[in-house]
Write a structure and sequence with these properties.
Blueprint: H1 3-10, H2 14-41, H3 51-67, H4 69-76, H5 81-104, H6 109-133, H7 143-171, H8 176-197, H9 217-236, H10 239-269, E1 276-279, E2 282-285, H11 288-320, H12 322-341, H13 346-374, H14 377-405, H15 413-436
Length: 437
């Protein structure tokens, strides 16, 4: 069945349509907000960017709340998921507006990071809630189809949001803080609209049922720890979900390391006709705006890869099985990533962005389906928060490793080859799992 036909089938479910609308608006805003952060941290002309600075920014924005993600999952299994989508997006609208004010006022970097950290923290609840709610709005027969189209549509919306942010950033002649503040303000408006859209879904429709009675703080903390342990035990008993999550985590690590490399290449190696020059031992970009344009194309290429994954994955999983498809994706990346990436030239890197977008999104679709189809509904919130933690810790860890390996201009054959070896290891492991199950 074609993607259009699959989407037409899913859209017959009214609550799926409403949940998809919330996802698209929320992730469209995410794309706008994330590009605003990248433009402010990486491409501000007055800032000297390094791999270590990028890794630090990722750690500040993702790691603390990713480590607390499992605790959020226990709350998701208590709170009405529709209310999480409603109030979470409304709160993000307020916080994003505050971030815009900080950028415009040229506030200290610490305050900027604290504001951005608050927005991304709420995102942990939103994304986990969207995934945990999906089985409540479609039947079991169409769950794989929904997992292929819904999260991928959200990723494409985030990519479109990134494109919108790039267009705004490049359209404002003077760039700088005013342009970045304008982009963040656009994201705030979109978060507000996403929150309002959640009102179209029934209050109790997304589960997980009535919340238990409130407890005192010590009792609530103890209950959270018990819930986390129960979620881990439940996941350990579901080998299919565990193996899929392991493969997804390693491929996400690879994607994170290469993301930092492309950011540095865009900032310095591809920044203008003269590319990167050196002054006083520091790498200087001739034109950060030119690098930002190339980065925009890389984001678009990766988005096309996400779309291709949505088209191919349902058919591929049916033909090769979950682990067979994961193995084929990792094997393709192991071959194509070094062949294209070792050139360190824009066009091959753009092709590599497409391939890695396809591979990464295909692994996520497969892992989503494995978790949703094997994990009980009562545990989905905490398991998806564990999933979310792995997803982000892998990305931040990759950024840290890249910071140790990458030179200032972003060209590193060692990093490219290391990533290829990891992909090859994942492919071998998944082929072994497929043969033994």
């Amino acid at each position: 069945m074609s993607v259009v036909g699959d989407l037409r089938t899913l859209l017959r479910f009214p609550d799926f349509r409403r949940l998809l609308t919330v996802r698209l608006l929320s992730q469209l805003a995410d794309g706008v907000y994330q590009v605003a952060l990248a433009a402010y941290v990486v491409f501000s002309p007055e800032k000297e960017t390094s791999p270590a600075a990028i890794a630090s920014a990722m750690a500040v924005l993702l790691l603390p709340y990713s480590l607390l993600g499992p605790f959020a999952g226990v709350l998701l299994d208590r709170w009405r998921r529709r209310q999480v989508l409603l109030y979470g997006n409304l709160l993000r609208a307020v916080l994003a507006a505050g971030t815009a004010a900080l950028v415009l006022a040229d506030a200290p970097t610490t305050l900027f990071y604290l504001s951005a950290l608050s927005v991304t923290a709420i995102n942990r609840f939103i994304l986990a809630g969207l995934s945990a709610a999906l089985p409540r709005v479609v039947d079991e027969e169409r769950l794989v189809m929904a997992n292929s189209l819904s999260p991928t549509a959200g990723t494409l919306a985030a990519t479109a949001g990134g494109g919108l942010a790039f267009a705004v950033r490049l359209a404002v002649p003077e760039g700088g803080g005013g342009a970045n503040a304008l982009i963040v303000s656009v994201g705030a408006v979109l978060y507000l609209v996403a929150g309002i859209a959640a009102l179209r879904i029934g209050r109790d429709r997304l589960g997980p049922g009535p919340a238990p009675a409130a407890h005192r703080l010590p009792a609530a903390l103890a209950s959270t720890v018990r819930g986390l342990v129960a979620g881990l035990r439940h996941l350990r008993e579901r080998r299919t979900a565990t193996y899929a999550l392991a493969a997804m985590t390693l491929m996400r690590f690879c994607y994170g390391a290469l993301t930092v490399m492309v950011l540095m290449l865009s900032r310095y190696a591809w920044g203008g006709e003269g590319n990167a020059g050196k002054m006083g031992g520091a790498v200087q970009a001739a034109d950060p705006g030119a690098g930002l344009k190339v980065l925009g194309l890389a984001v678009a290429a990766s988005g096309l890869g996400y779309f291709a994954a949505a088209v191919i994955t349902p058919w591929a999983v049916e033909l090769a099985g979950r682990f067979g498809w994961l193995a084929l994706c990792a094997a393709a990346a192991a071959v194509l990533e070094p062949a294209l990436g070792l050139t360190f030239a824009p066009v091959p890197i753009l092709l590599s962005a497409f391939v890695l977008g396809l591979v990464t999104q295909a692994s996520k679709i497969t892992a989503d389906t494995a978790v949703q189809s094997t994990v009980d509904d009562a545990f989905r919130g905490r398991v998806f928060s564990l999933y979310d933690m792995l997803f982000n810790v892998a990305f931040v860890s990759a950024a840290g490793v890249a910071a140790l390996i990458l030179p200032p201009d972003g060209r590193s054959a060692v990093l490219v080859v290391t990533v290829a070896v990891i992909y090859a290891g994942v492919a071998a492991a998944m082929f072994h799992v497929k043969r033994s199950t």
